[in-house]
Amino acid sequence: MIYINRLKYEKIVDQARREIPDECCGYLGGKKSGEDIFIKKVYPLTNIDHSNEHFSMDPKEQFNTIKTIRNEGLVMIGNYHSHPESPSRPSEEDKRLAFDPSILYGILSLEKEEPVFNLFKIDRDKNVEKLKYEIV
Fold first, then answer.
1. pLDDT digits over 85-99, tens only?
2. CA 123/CA 99 separation, integer angstroms
3. Which long-range contacts (CB under 8 A, 24 or more apart) does 52-58 make?
């Protein structure tokens, strides 16, 4: 099972709302224990594309964030981004750019009044699996 801390989930929602009309993006840090994944920390990053249809993360910011995650005794669990005007599912571009099948891909939709957050696994063949998670 995947567990995400409620305050960290709310941090993603707050970032996504603040960055409208652009997509927001960031990394998820945490711990793994057997089959369980615990998302402990959210690391907001800058969408250098400043677009509402796609995002690119700043490479220097990415490198520094990975260093921070490791220094805090966590592992990089995955990344997330928002879809300001579309559903919480990977777009064709999201699938094409999903290079690492070992991480989680989070997508927060702000299409409707109530945000919708989903986590996905995307394998090397670009097959998408929606994962269950719990907010704790």
1. 999 999 999 999 999
2. 8
3. 52/20, 52/21, 52/22, 52/23, 52/84, 52/85, 53/23, 54/23, 54/93, 55/22, 55/23, 55/24, 55/25, 55/81, 57/25
Domains of the chain by start residue, with CATH: 2-135 (3.40.140.10)
Gap between the Cα atoms of 8 and 126, Å rounded: 28
What is the Cα–Cα distance from 7 to 94, expressed in whole angstroms?
26
CB atoms near residue 132 (< 10 Å):
8
Span 10-36, pLDDT tens digits: 999 999 999 999 999 999 999 999 999
What is the mean pLDDT of the segment spanning 44-56?
Answer: 94
Sequence-distant (≥ 6) Cβ neighbours of residue 132 within 8 angstroms:
1, 2
β-pair partners for 30: 39, 75
